[in-house]
Every structure is written in C-alpha cells, then in structure tokens.
Design brief:
Elements: E1 8-10, E2 17-19, E3 23-29, E4 33-36, E5 41-47, H1 50-53, H2 58-66, H3 74-87
Antiparallel strand pairs: 1-2, 3-4, 3-5
The chain binds zinc ion.
Zinc ion binds at residues 11, 13-14, 16, 47, 49, 52.
C-alpha cells in the first residue's frame, strides 16, 4: 500500500499549516470570479477555526492574498460557506 502524504497548505489568517482537507480554499477564478473549493487561479486557504474566519481583518488579508477587490457581500457568503463546511467536513464539492 502506498502511503498518502497529506497536502499541506498555509492558513492566511493564523499562518499555520494544515492538511488541505481541513481548509477552505478561496479561488479567484479567471472566468467565474471568486469561488470556493474549486476553480483555477490565485488561491488562498483559511482554516476552520472561528478565530480565523471571523477575524475583522480577514477580508483585507484575502484581498491581499488574492490580489483582488472583494465586494462587501463577500464576507456574508464566505461565512455561510465556511460554517456549512464546518458542519460537513467531508462532503466535498
Ligand atoms: Zn487559521
């Protein structure tokens, strides 16, 4: 049996590395704009810790990481996304 090495990614908020499966990926897709968990383009990862996603500076950090402007509505969508992701950690999209 081959051992699977977890893919480690950095949370842009707490700057700790986590298994990719435990992070929410936010991508600035070339065609679709900002999308979660899929897409091609510049991406940022955030862990599921409430301290991270409810951080008041998270929007700024994301804008910097994705090199884009995020609409004010983004934070609402983002919070919904990450909280539902917390409920179903293995659902996969
Ligand atoms: Zn974090």
């Amino acid at each position: 049996m081959t051992q699977q090495t977890p893919v480690m990614r950095l949370c842009i908020s707490c700057r700790k590395t986590f298994d990719r499966k435990n992070l929410l990926k936010i991508t600035k897709d070339h065609k679709q704009g900002i999308i979660f968990q899929k897409g091609m383009g510049r991406s940022a990862y955030i862990c599921k810790s409430k301290i991270c996603y409810s951080d008041s500076k998270i929007k700024k950090k994301l804008q910097k990481a994705l090199k884009t402007f995020l609409e004010p509505e983004f934070i609402d969508i983002f919070e919904k996304e990450i909280t539902s992701y917390n409920d179903y950690p293995n659902k996969g999209i």
